[in-house]
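Hello forum,

I keep getting stuck at the same step: I have a sequence, I want structure tokens, and every attempt I make locally crashes halfway through. Rather than fight my setup again tonight, could one of you with a working pipeline run this one for me? It's a single chain of 774 residues.
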Amino acid sequence: MKTIFTTLLVIFTAVMCVCCIYFKRTKTEVSKSLFRLHCGAIFSCVLYLFSIFNLPALLSYFINSIYYASIHFLLILLTNFIFTLTQFPFKEEHKKYVVSLKKIWLFLFTLDALSFLLNPFFHHEFELSRLFVNKDVFLCWTPRFFWPFQIHLGLCYILSALIFIVLGIKIWQTNRFYRSKYIITIAIFFIVLLINAFFLWLDTYLDFSILLYSVFSIICSYFTIYATTKRVQNTMLQQLSETINIGIFVFNLDRKCIFSNKTAKNLQFTTDALLEELKSLLIYRKDLIKRNIKIILNDQEHTLAEEFCYLLDSQKKICGYILKMNDITEELKRSAEESYRSTHDELTGLLTRKAFYEEGERILKSEPDTERYLICTNIKNFKLLNDLCGSEIGDALLKEFANLLKAEKTKSILSGRITGDRFAILINKEDLDKDHGLEKIFKLENFISDSQLANYKFHILIGIYKITDPTEKIGVMYDKAALTLKHISDNYSINVAYYKKEMLSSLEKNKKILDSFKQALKNNHFKMYLQPQVRCSDEKVAGAEALVRWETENGSSFSPEKFIRVLEDNGQIYRLDQFIWEQAAQTIQRWQAQKIDLSIAVNVSANDFYHLDLFKHFTALVKKYGIPPQKLKLEITETVLIHDLTLHKQTLTKLQDFGFIIEMDDFGSGYSSLMVLKNIDVDILKIDMAFLSKTEHEERSKKILQYVIKMAQKLGIKIIVEGVETLEQAKFLKKLHCDFFQGYLYSKPVSTEEFERKFLQQFQKTGQDGGNDQ
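Reply #2:
Ran it on my machine without issues. Output:
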């Protein structure tokens, strides 16, 4: 019997030693805790093995005493392992109490161990006696149930109860998926305690429960490190294979399908069809094959991305085959749609500018000897149509135009929408020379889709550029064709114009301006000029409008008429506007430091709305220089506002809420003034005196101006009249109770230095008298 017991104990101890070697190599907290638990179990088992042999009495007492103390320490190690395994979530404020409790328990363990070490002398914990079983002699102990031994048992059972509580809470809180390892641990621990109690309380002379300590440690290791993890992995992989949108077939070497997930079954392959597919793949004799195949599923054709590979064992030998099938029908459809949207205009379905240029250059390179023309078309006054009839009618017109272009199916005609109502056509010379070559384009002039257009005649302007050099950039060709439209835009008797070299001179001038613009901006060749705005009541300066001049290195200057339009047409005006805004903010800051209360109005162009976040930019600007937002007025023309009224209204409302003042320039010069005024809550209207001077009906114009000013006053809007050049005009405007004047009567635009020298004297003399009340 002793031999059997010893053999089992040695085997279990050897297994635990192997486990310790494995745990030492791994670096996880659970492995470290298991390593300590196994070391404690090995130590207890070895002590018990020596304790049952017939050794000298004093030595036997010492060994058994250390064994009893080791059981207490083993429970401490087990408790630490349970807390590590469960990752019990102590609150931050409770952690200091846990640390204190550990110190207290270590002190109690020390006292318990000392009590056992004193047992060989006082015999207050247990007694030893010899037991003869089948010629084998065992040393067995008989507990003395005095209070020291009862304290030892109490401490051990408190730790055991704590282990049960922690595991019970974890089982209750943990997801069913991970619960098994805690259930197995608590079940085995319960059995160990039950058997240990049996030996202890039934006064059996031999206690073989020590074998269960080693068994418990080994089983904990198995289920914690290997079995549960493996089961979770397998379950996850199985669930993943069932929920993944890729069909998976697994075949053995006999080409029999041994597994297929839910997606694979939905593909409705018959056994024979699946076998034929596998055979067709095996013919290639490749480790990996990727290809697309088509199948009929639910009476519809589907495209599958197929991937085939060998299934290898641990020795890299083929043990089966894996076939994956992914239905990419919708993906290919979306990709095709995205590709189409990236190259075709959403409204008309024609090629976008970029796609038209790329395809046009490809055609020209592939057939350089074919004579071709590049045509640019423009619908005259298209913006007016949008304003009068709404964007839906305008969009319908553009669609009809695009349909006329798409109706010609010949490969010799390429068409695209470049921007807005501008279309481009690349066409062979022979197709253009036919009688119907341009007729289809002019058919649009007879297009009527709504009663609002019944009395409106559309005029299509056509610019034609004959391609002489097929290697020339098609963007340059388009610019040349578009250049011709400027020469016929004001002539209602001409619809078609051919490009001539003389037209290039203006294009080259524009290019020269653009080429030198960035460098001029960098070198501060642009200067801010100011034109004073005076109050009608006392004719004192109340503010100024910021204008710009381009000064060259030799001292000459460009007037704004020569470069502003070029910068606007080429989308560069926002860079210049930013520069002037910065100059204006700096000037206001300097005036503010001198206690000069004047504002500066800066121009905001249509380009600025699309290139910049105006709210973010202007709010950052006034914060940077520490100036009130109402001192930096924002001047916007009504033609800017009607381009995208909804978008601009949102931006302007946010700016006004922040404190900026919005001025509408050129009020009355367009055709939508009242519509804009109805939708945009502007603070100031600017009216040009040219409204009176450029008419034969001066008296009639004065009455209109009088009513406009009255209307503005009732709306709480102030009026600035610019272009005031004579005293008679000033007197007339005073009678109308106009708020502010601006014009050559008071000053032409001057440099900032001259403005300050000339107009800021009133502040030096009168302090804040004449301050800004706009």
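The CA atoms of residues 312 and 319 lie 6 Å apart. If your local run keeps crashing, start a new thread with the error log.
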